Amino acid sequence: MSSTPERRPAAEALRRVLDRPLASYQFVLGAGALLVGLGLVMVLSASSVLAYRIHDNSYAIFVKQGVFAVLGLFGAYIALKVPLALVRRLAFPLLLLVTALVVLTLVPGIGVEVGGNRNWLPLFGGFMLQPSEFAKLALIIWISALYAGRQKALRGPHAARMMLMPMVLVAGALAGLVVLQKDLGTALVLFAVTVGLLWAVGLPTRQMGMVFAALSVVLIFFVATAPHRVSRMLNFLDPMADPERAGYQSIHSMMALATGGFWGVGLGGSRQKWGSLPNAHTDFLMSVVGEELGLFGTFVVLALFVVLALAGVRIAMRTRDPFAHYVAVGITIWISVQAIINIGMVLGLLPVIGIPLPLMSYGGSSLLVTMVAVGLLANCALTEPGARKALHAGRPVGRAAGRATTRTASTSARRPTRRPVATKGR
Predict the structure, then answer these.
(1) Is 397 inside a domain boundary?
(2) Strand pairing partners for 128?
(3) According to the 3-state scheme, what is the secondary structure of 107-131?
(4) Domain containing 239: what range?
(5) What's CA 286's distance to the chain center, in Å?
(6) Residue 129 — φ and ψ, nearest 5°?
(7) Model's pTM, two decimal places?
(8) Tens-place pLDDT, residues 4-21
(9) Structural domain includes residue 172
(10) Number of domains forming the structure of the chain
C-alpha cells in the first residue's frame, strides 16, 4: 500500500513529459546524439590496437569516423530544416541517383571489393562510399512519397494492387542489385523495410502472407546457393563445431561479453580487441561494449535504441501528415531491425551476416546516412500537433524576455532616484 503513493508522482511526471508537444523531437535528437557520442568513444577504444598496427597511429581509424560524424552532423541539420514537401518532391530523383551509384559498384574497374562484398566506390584520400547504405533511406523516402500521393486510392476497391505496385517491383530490383554485391545483410534490411511499410499501409493479411512467403523463399535460395552463407548458418547452430574458422568470431564475442560481467573491465581495457576478435570496431563493436562497460553499458545502449524506436512509433501515430507517417515508420523499422540483427549476431542468437550497429559501429557511409535519417525523423516529429508552434514559440519568447529585461534595467538606470518626502507628524 505504501508503494502506490510513491509511484504516482513518477507516473504523473512521465505523463507530463510525454504530453509535451516536443517530447518526440527531443527523444529522437537526445537518443541519437548519445548513441553517436558513445559510438565514437567505443570506436576509438576498439580500433586503437588495429590502427596502430596498420597505420602506426592509434587514432587513424577514429579520425576517419570523426570526419563522417561531422559530415553526418551537417547532414542531420539539413534534414531537420528542409521542408518535408521538398523531400517528397525529390524522392524519385534521389532513388534514381542512389540506384545508379549501386550499379556503378558492379562495373569492373570502378567498384571496389572489401571483405568479399563488392559494394564500395573509391573517393579521395583513402575514403570510400557505400551506396547500398544510402539505398535504405532513398527507398523509404520514395515509398513514403508514393503512398502519401495515393491516400484515396489506398482506400478504394483496388487498394491492394495500389499498395503492391510498383513498390514491390522497385524494392525487389534494388534489393537484387544489393544481393549482386554479395551484401545479403543490407538486402535483408531492405526486405524488412518493404514488409514493414506494407504492414503500415494496411495490406490485407492474405497478400501480406504471400509477400512474406515469397521473401522467405528468396532468402533461403540466396543462403543455400552460397557456400560461405551455408557455413555461417551451420556455425550459428553449433559454433564449437569449427572453433578456429567459422565459429571463431562468435566464440570470441561470447568470451568478451562473459569477461565484462556487470560493470565491465573498464574503458579501453578490452583484451579481445588485441587481435582475438576480428572486426571489433565494426560488426562486433557491441562485444567490446559488453567487455569494457559490462552488462550495465550494454543495457544503456539497448535503452537508447528502445527510446529511439518508441519515439519513432509515437511520431507515426501522432502526425497528421501521411508522408511524415510513412517516413517515420520506415526509418524506425530500418534502425530497429538493423540494431536487432547486429545485437542478436553478437549474442549468438542470429547468424553472423556482417551488418553494423546503427549510429555506433565504424563505417562512414552507415554513420552518415543514419545520422541524416535521425535528422529527418526529428523533422517528422515537428509535424505532430503543436510541435512546430512550440519550437518556434520558445525562441522569440526568450529573446523578448531578454530585451524586456535589458529595457527595464536601462530605464531604471536612467530614472533619477527619488527620495521620500518627509511629512510632519500631526
Answers:
(1) no
(2) 122
(3) CCCCCEEECCEEEEEECCCCCEECH
(4) 23-384
(5) 15
(6) -115, 140
(7) 0.89
(8) 555 578 788 878 888 899
(9) yes
(10) 1
